[in-house]
Amino acid sequence: MPVRVQQHDFDAGAEIAALRAGNLNVGAVAAFIGTVRDLNEGAGVSAMALEHYPGMTERALEDICTQARGRWNILDALVIHRYGDLAPGDQIVLVVVTSAHRGEAFAACEFIMDYLKTQAPFWKKERTPHGERWVEARESDDEAAARW
N or C: which end of the chain has fewer CB within 10 A? Predict the structure, then answer.
């Protein structure tokens, strides 16, 4: 279950193809791509800076994937999360899950993303016309993760 934290962009199609390459047991692939919005909480966003704690972040992502594998019958999972300065429209995160059946893939993909939003050590700072601001955790993200 590959996990990567990187500054450079990713090619989702190439990453999905690589994850399922050669595995004829794959009957379903579920993927999520998160991007930078140009508007958040009523303010325009001109840029976002993402920070992380190297080593700790990768371990947290690996743990989330291991938990997903323990809950669902999945074949593989991939998480790529970017850090550094990003602009609206840039890709931030890719989560891909392969399994024999779609239900397992969808559930595990959603679980990984919900836990990533609430448990992975990332910090986001947005640049707006009114200055910079840290992005606070959303109650809705905590509620989503709590259902698992």
Answer: C
